[in-house]
């Protein structure tokens, strides 16, 4: 199966890989509160990156101005959404702060790399053809 250019599948591979790598350590060493916070951080980062993917898909073949508005404006919206959700998870639900933060930032970093590579691949394909 070729994952190149199939962004949702790449995100799924990252999530499954993380699940395989973290399943035993989290099950054996972490409390339920920590496992919940790690899952919430992964879910929040996944929602964030998929919203970014949708913005890129929507705006990619549009004008330069539309692309910048959709991607940069979408980035601002996503950051505000993440801040609100993060605050709600910490203050409202009371998830483990360190586990939530590390999980959120870890998945965020990996997903941002995937997002940048995806945009670069799309640009390369567009410029060739």
Largest sheet: none
The radius of gyration over CA amounts to 16 Å
Query: Please, how many helices?
Result: 4
| Helical residue percent band | over 70%
Overall geometric form:
flat
Mean pLDDT: 92
Strand-residue fraction?
A: under 5%
SS-derived structural category: mainly alpha
Distance, first to last CA? 24 Å
Q: What number of structural domains do the residues give? A: 1
Number of beta strands: 0
Poorly predicted ranges: none
Order of helices and strands: HHHH
Written description of the protein model:
The protein is built from four helices and no strands. With 129 residues, the protein is an all-alpha fold. It has one domain (7-128). The protein starts with 6 loop residues before the first helix and ends with a helix. The mean pLDDT is 92.
Task: Please summarize what this structure is.
This protein has one domain. With 129 residues, the protein is an all-alpha fold. Helix content is 88%, strand content 0%.
Please name the defining characteristics of this protein:
flat, 129 residues, mainly alpha
Helix/strand layout:
Elements: H1 7-29, H2 32-59, H3 64-93, H4 97-128
